[in-house]
């Protein structure tokens, strides 16, 4: 049997802690990922990476996290959408009717 790796972290006054890097790597945790705790009758606590709820898109979540960080670090890069650009966008997709609740076709899956 392989030797277990043991690490520690400290609780703050608000009962918060930083997940040690070795644990983050082992669980493949990224920023904003959720952690699942299983408390066994023996008092042992098992920490695992929480699975994304059904229907949640992990790629979209990562993209939104990227946008949040980018806007926070570089607010000077934000630009207003002018009327000309808005008109060009509407000319590209303005006539497209999309039913977001419709099932995908076999070709689209």
From TrEMBL:
It comes from the Bacteria. InterPro entries: PrlF_antitoxin, SpoVT-AbrB_sf. This is Type II toxin-antitoxin system PrlF family antitoxin. It comes from Acidithiobacillus concretivorus.
């Amino acid at each position: 049997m392989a030797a277990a790796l043991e690490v520690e972290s400290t609780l703050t006054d608000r009962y918060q802690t930083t997940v040690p890097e070795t644990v983050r790597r082992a669980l493949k945790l990224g920023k904003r990922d959720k952690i699942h705790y299983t408390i066994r009758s023996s008092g042992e606590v098992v920490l695992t990476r929480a699975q994304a709820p059904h229907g949640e898109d992990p790629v979209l979540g990562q993209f939104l996290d990227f946008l949040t960080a980018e806007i926070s670090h570089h607010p000077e890069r934000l630009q207003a959408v002018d009327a000309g650009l808005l008109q060009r966008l509407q000319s590209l997709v303005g006539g497209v009717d999309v039913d977001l609740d419709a099932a995908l076709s076999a070709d689209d899956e």
